Amino acid sequence: MNVFEYIQHNVLHVPWVVLSALFAGLLVLMTGMRVKSAITNGGGVLPDEGFTIRNAMEVVVEQLSDLAKMTIGDDYRRYFPIVGTIFLFVLISNCMSLVPGLLGSTSDFNTTLAWAIISFLVYNFVGLRAHGWKYIYHLMGPTLWTPTIGGKTWHVRVLAPFFLPLELVLHLARILTLSIRLVANMFADHLVVTTWLGMIPVIVPAIFLGLGLLVSFLQAAVFSLLTMIYIGEALEESH
């Protein structure tokens, strides 16, 4: 039983996954406030000496923003806050499960599904805001004929009746693929770490804890990267 399950059964009677998610959200908020305070007090120019939260976050943000610029485009700054929030929340929640007595909310399907739905709504909202009702052209397949009638060019998508239902299913399936991929990988990773901790208390578990930290980072990166890819696709002009 982890700390959040204990609180659920003996104190607040609130589902442990909600408590875990709130705790992760609090850590995200505290991290942001700590970095902001460090930048304000340090003038925002010179980095801190040694390894600090600010230095670590600056490296992460720089790498993530470069990836967002390549994936989304020059307008990436508008969408970076949601991508960065997803990355940081998922990373912290993943790492929480590596701490004895804690369990991150990303080990529960409800949390990963919620973030997948948020990602789905965000990139579709971005597409609708950028293209209006023409955003549906993304779901109707390629233009096979472009006749000019009355001085206006028409894009005829002959295969739209086939592409539209298929694309709708594929887009909805993104919610499941995002959520299942994350929860399945984290469940498997935490199961391996817990098993080795129970069998051999030293050395070997430390190796798997290191691998678990790497997996936690990679899964957070993959989730945020896919969100960036979907946003970039939504911003593209349909052909």
General description of the model:
The chain is globular. A two-stranded antiparallel ribbon has the order 1-2. The model has no long low-confidence stretch (mean pLDDT 81). It contains seven helices and two strands. The protein has helices at residues 3-10, 16-41, 53-72, 80-96, 109-131, 160-199, 204-235; strands spanning 148-149, 152-153. With 239 residues, it is mostly helical. It has one domain (3-235). Strand 1 and strand 2 form a beta hairpin.
List the topology elements.
Layout: H1 3-10, H2 16-41, H3 53-72, H4 80-96, H5 109-131, E1 148-149, E2 152-153, H6 160-199, H7 204-235
Antiparallel strand pairs: 1-2
Which structural class best describes the helix and strand composition? mainly alpha
Helical content stands at 55-70%
Major sheet: 2 strands, antiparallel
How many domain regions?
A: 1
Strand order of the largest sheet: 1-2
* Averaged pLDDT: 81
- Please tally the β strands and state the result: 2
Question: What series of H and E elements makes up the topology?
Answer: HHHHHEEHH
Low-pLDDT stretches are none
Net shape = globular
Percent of sequence in beta strands: under 5%
Number of helices, where a helix is a run of at least 4 consecutive DSSP H or I residues: 7
Radius of gyration of CA atoms, rounded to a whole number: 22 Å
What keywords describe this structure?
single chain; two-stranded antiparallel sheet; mainly alpha; 239 residues; 2% strand
Concise structural overview:
With 239 residues, the protein is an all-alpha fold.
